[in-house]
Amino acid sequence: MLSSIQNPRLLRLSTLHQIPLRCLQTSTTPVPTPSSPQPTSQILRIRKSLLSRETTAVEIAKTFLSRLRRTEPQLKSFLYVSPEDGVLKQAEEIDRRIQNNEELGPLAGVLAGVKDNICTSDMPSTAGSKILENYTPPYDATAVKKLRENGAIIVGKTNLDEFGMGSTTEASGYQVTANPWDLSRVPGGSSGGSAAAVSAQQCAVSLGTDTGGSVRQPASFCGVVGLKPTYGRVSRYGLVAYASSLDVIGCLGSSVADTGIVLQAVSGHDKFDATSSKQGIPNFASQFIPKDYLDSKPLKGLRVGVIRETLVDGVDPDVISSLQRSVSHLEDLGCTISEVSFPSFSLGLPAYYILASSESSSNLARYDGVRFGNQVFADELSTLYGDSRAEGFGSEVKLRILMGTYALSAGYYDAYYKRAQQVRTLVQKSFRAALEENDVLISPAAPSVAYKIGEKKNDPLAMYAGDIMTVNVNLAGLPALVLPCGFVEEGSSVLPVGLQMIGAAFDEESLLKIGHIFEQTLQGLLELL
Amino acid sequence: MALTFFRGIKTCPLVHYPSAYFARKNGFFYCTMGSTQTQFATQEKQQSGDSKVVPKTYRKSPDKLLKDYEAIIGIETHVQLNTSTKAFCGCPYSYGAQPNTSICPVCMGLPGALPVLNSKVVEYAVKLGLALNCKLSMDSKFDRKQYFYPDLPKGYQISQFDVPIASGGYVDVDLPVEFGGGHRKFGITRVHMEEDAGKLLHTGTGNYSQVDLNRAGVPLLEIVSEPDMRTGIEAAEYAAELQRLVRYLGVSNGNMQEGSLRCDVNISIRPIGQQEFGTKVEIKNLNSFSSVSRAIDFEISRQVQLHSQGQADQIVQETRLWEEGAQKTITMRKKEGLSDYRYFPEPDLPGVTLTEEYLDGIRSSLPELPEIKRRRYENMGLSMQDVLFLANDINVAEFFDATIASAADIKLAANWIMGDIAAYMKNEKLSISEIKLTPLELGELIASIKGGTISGKIGKEILFELMAKGGTVQGLIKEKDLVQIVDRSEIEKMVDKVLADNPEQLKQYRGGKTKLQGYFAGQVMKASKGKANPKLLNQILLEKLNTET
C-alpha cells in the first residue's frame, strides 16, 4: 500500500538540514507535512547558495561531513571516507575562487561519492574485494578525473557487492550496507553504498556502475534517481571490469536534474577507452524546465510503451499498482500509452548471467597475487595462484568465475556463450523495434521493494531473478532512468518503488526531460492518493 | 608507483632451462640432408660445433634410412613489430632496457585499465599480409586467449582466434646455391595480430623469479605456414625469407638473437608413400636460421631412427627444446591433450574493419619485394649466387639498384658491392647505409676505370677513401693527382730513367734473366706513383729492354 501519510523521501529532502533521517531517528516522531515537496536538485541548490554567497563551500562540506559521520555507523555505505581536512581544503579553494570571481565548474562544491570499483589515485580502490585490500591505483578513472575537473569533491568510496557481483551489497568483502529507509533491509546492489549515501544525504550525488541493473535497482530500493547511460557514453577507463561488454558508469542523485548534470560532466569519448563513443553530447540541463513553465500537457504526443512481461506473476502487486498509477500520471501529462510485448524478455536473464560470468572469469584472471593485491606465499606457482585467489575472492565471485569458466570451455562454448550472444542479438532487435514504435519504454525497476538483509543471501537464483527488469537493458546497451514513483508500506516501514524508463541509444536527453517532468508533477499524484 | 613489482614469486616450476644450455658442451653435429655446416644464402654464421661426434645410437649411417622417409615441417613464426609504441598503450619498447621502466597501467594489467589498438599494428599486419599474398579479412576482431603465467599480466593474451587479419597466402623462396638451389613455394595458413608477454628473470639461487613487463603488450604478428617444408634447409630458408620480407617492409628488425623473430617448428615424419601424417613434435628455442636447419635435421634423424627400429610409439606429441651446446633436441614438456584457452571475443576492443581504399593505399606503398627483385636481377643476367646476395638485404639491393641506375655496368657494380665493399662493411661492422660511399660515386668509379681515367688499382684505393671519408671520385682524382698516365713519351722517359739507374739488372736481363722484367715494371710504376697505364708501360718497357743500343 502507498503510504497514507506523506512521501517520506520528499520530506527528507525538504527538511534536509533540520531533521535527521526518519529511519535513523530513535523515536517515532510524527511526520510534519512539507509545503514544497518537489525533489530539488542538490547541485543547483549548492550552486545557487554559493553564487549568492548565502553560504560557503566549507559550510556545505561540513554539513555533509557531519551528517555522514552521524549516519555512517548505522548505514555503512562507505568503504573509505576522505580525511576531513582534505575535503575542507578543496572546499576552501572553491570559496577562494568565488571570492576572486573566478570561473566555477558545474559541480563546484558538490560532494560526490564514488563506487569503490572506480579507480581513484588518492584513495584505495578495492572493488569491495579482499583481493584488492589496501590497493590504491596509480591513476584516476576518467569519470573521476572529469568529476574533479568539474569542481566536485570526492568524499569517499562507497560500498558494493564484490566486483559488482550482487544485488544487495551483502556480497561486499568488507561490510553490509543498510537501507536508509529501513536499516534491517538491503539497499540493493551492487551500487548499494552509492544509493544509500545519496538517499541519506551523506553526499550530494554519487557514481555507481551498472552491469545488469546495479545503479537502477539500488536507486529503486533507496528511493533516489539512478541513471544508466548508453553503453559507451561514459568512459570505462578506470572502472574495475566485471563484464566489459555490459559495464557502464552511472549517476545517482536525489533528483533527475542531478543525475543529468553529473552525466554531463562525466560523458564523452575517451582515447583510453576504445569502446567509448564519439557521439555528440547534448546539453542535458536544457531539458530541466521549471514546473511553473510547464503547460497542462507537457508530454503531449510522447509515445510510451509499457513492457507487458514486466507486469506479470512474480512481481509484487504493490509494485504493479505503483507502476499502473505512474502510467495514468504519464497519460495525464499527455503521453500516448501502449503495451509492448517482448517474447525474448525472460531469455535475457540467463543470457545475461552467462555472458557476464564468462567475461568476469576472464576479467578477474589478473588477480593472481603476482603484481598487486592479496598474495599468499607459496612454494609453487600454482599454489601461489590458488591460495591467493581462494583467500582473496568471496563466494559469489568464485561462483561466477566457475560458471563463466565452464561456459567458455571447449565443447560448451557453443551451447552457452554463443547461444547467449544470439539471445543478446534477439534482445537488441526487440528493443530496436519497440523503440521505433515508442519514444520510451517503461517497467518497474525491480520486481519488489527492498527486502530484508539475509533474506536471499542463500538463494542466489532468487536474487538473480530480481534482476529480470534491468538486465535486458544492459544486453541492448540502452540508456535507462530509474526514479521513485510510489511507496509501499511494509510493516512499520515505508519503502520506495522505482519506475524504469528505457530510451533509444544515446537518447538520455529524452529520458531526462520526461523524468524531470514526471518528478516535478508527481506530487499531484501522491496527493490524490 | 607504489607497487611491489619485484616481489618474488617463490620458485617458478614451469620452464626450467637445463644449465647445459649455457654450458656449451662439446657439441656434435648430426648431418643428414646435405651438409648444414657451410654458410648459406642467409649469410649466417655457424655458431658452434667444434667437433663431429656421431652418437653411438645412430652409428649405423641413417642416410639410407632417410631415403625411405619424408619429413613434414610447418613453422609458426612470431615477428615483433617495431612500432614506436606498444600494441594497446602508449609505452615505447626498447630491447635491453632496465626492467619495468617502460610500463603503464594498461600493459601492467592494472584493474580498470583498457587496451586501445595502435593503428600501426593493423597497417603492418596488412603490409605483411599483402606481401605474403594473403587474402585479407575486411572484418576481423580480437579475442582473448586465456592462461595463467606470471609474465602475462592480464591472465589472457589479446590475440586473434577464428578470424585472423590475413590468411591463405604463400611465399616464394630460392634455396641457396650451395645446397643445390631451386625455387620453392610454401603456403601461408594465416597471419594474425597479438601482444607479446613479459619476461621472467630467474635468479641464480632459484628461490624466486622476477617479472619484467617491458615486453608485455609489444605487438606481434604470428605467421603460420602450411606444412609444406621437407628439409631443414627449406625451413631455414623460409624463415630467412620472412626475415627479408619484414625488413623490406620495415615492420620489424627481424633480429632472431633479440627475439624479434621467433620460430617454432612443427615436425613429423612418415614413410614415403604413406598418406597420413606421423605424430607431430614442436621444437622451440631456435635462435638462428642455422639452428632451425640443424634442429630439424637432428629431429628427422631421431624420429626416423625410432620409427625404423619399430619404436614409433616413442615419438610422442611434445614440445622439445633445441640445445645449441649439445646440438640436440630434448623434451621440454609433454602435451596432455590440447590446452583449452577458452577463447572469446575481446569485449574491450571494437572489430577491425578494413576498406578497399585503405588496402589500395598500403598496396601502392609496398616496396619491390624480395621475390620480384630476385627475378629482375636474374633477368639482368646475374648469377643466382649474385642475385641471392644482392637481394638478401634491402639496403644492399637499393644501393645496387641506385648504382646501376647511373648506367654503371651491372656485373661490375655487383662485383664491387659483393667484393671490396662487402669486405669493408664486414671488417668495420658497418651496414651499407653507414658507409660514406654513395651509389652515384660507385657508378662514377666504375665508369672512370672502364674509361681508362684511372687504373683498377687506383680505383680500389679511391674506393676505400670514399667508403671511409666520402667525397667524390673526380675530387679525389684531382686532389691526389691520380689520373692515369697514357702519354707515351712521358712513360718512355720514366722507363729510360729506370733502365739508366739499374745498369746491373739491365745487364743480367739482357744476359737472359728475363724474369727481371717484372722488377723493371715495378720500378717504373713506382716512379709514376702507380699512375702509368700498365699495358702501355709494359709495352714500352719490353721494347726498350729488347732494343740494345
Automatic annotation (TrEMBL), chain A:
Q: Catalyses which reaction?
A: L-glutamyl-tRNA(Gln) + L-glutamine + ATP + H2O = L-glutaminyl-tRNA(Gln) + L-glutamate + ADP + phosphate + H(+)
Q: Which PROSITE patterns does the record match to this protein?
A: AMIDASES
Recorded protein name is: Glutamyl-tRNA(Gln) amidotransferase subunit A, chloroplastic/mitochondrial
Top-level taxon in the UniProt lineage: Eukaryota
Location of the protein in the cell: Mitochondrion; Plastid, Chloroplast stroma
Please, what other remarks does the record include? This protein may be expected to contain an N-terminal transit peptide but none has been predicted.
Subunit field text: Subunit of the heterotrimeric GatCAB amidotransferase (AdT) complex, composed of A, B and C subunits.
Reported EC number(s) for this entry are: 6.3.5.7
Q: Where is the active site?
A: K115, S190, S214
Entry's family note: Belongs to the amidase family. GatA subfamily.
Keywords, in A-Z order:
ATP-binding, Chloroplast, Ligase, Mitochondrion, Nucleotide-binding, Plastid, Protein biosynthesis
Per the entry, what this protein does is: Allows the formation of correctly charged Gln-tRNA(Gln) through the transamidation of misacylated Glu-tRNA(Gln) in chloroplasts and mitochondria. The reaction takes place in the presence of glutamine and ATP through an activated gamma-phospho-Glu-tRNA(Gln).
Q: Which InterPro entries match?
A: Amidase, Amidase_CS, Amidase_dom, AS_sf, GatA
**Enzyme type, top EC level:** ligase
Q: What is its main location?
A: mitochondrion
| Domain called Amidase: residue spans | 59-512
From TrEMBL, chain B:
Catalysed reactions listed for this entry:
L-aspartyl-tRNA(Asn) + L-glutamine + ATP + H2O = L-asparaginyl-tRNA(Asn) + L-glutamate + ADP + phosphate + 2 H(+); L-glutamyl-tRNA(Gln) + L-glutamine + ATP + H2O = L-glutaminyl-tRNA(Gln) + L-glutamate + ADP + phosphate + H(+)
Q: Where in the cell is it found?
A: Mitochondrion; Plastid, Chloroplast
Molecular function in Gene Ontology: ATP binding; glutaminyl-tRNA synthase (glutamine-hydrolyzing) activity
What is one GO cellular-component annotation here? Answer: chloroplast
Give the enzyme's EC designation. Answer: 6.3.5.-
Which Pfam family name is an example for this entry? GatB_Yqey
Q: Which PROSITE patterns match?
A: GATB
> What is the top-level taxon of the source organism?
Eukaryota
Q: Does the keyword Membrane apply?
A: no
Output the PANTHER family linked to this UniProt entry.
Answer: GLUTAMYL-TRNA GLN AMIDOTRANSFERASE SUBUNIT B MITOCHONDRIAL AND PROKARYOTIC PET112-RELATED, GLUTAMYL-TRNA(GLN) AMIDOTRANSFERASE SUBUNIT B, MITOCHONDRIAL
Assembly with partners or alone: Subunit of the heterotrimeric GatCAB amidotransferase (AdT) complex, composed of A, B and C subunits.
NCBIfam families in alphabetical order: gatB, PRK05477.1-2, PRK05477.1-4
Instruction: Spell out the protein name for this chain.
Output: Glutamyl-tRNA(Gln) amidotransferase subunit B, chloroplastic/mitochondrial
Q: What species is this protein from?
A: Coffea arabica (Arabian coffee)
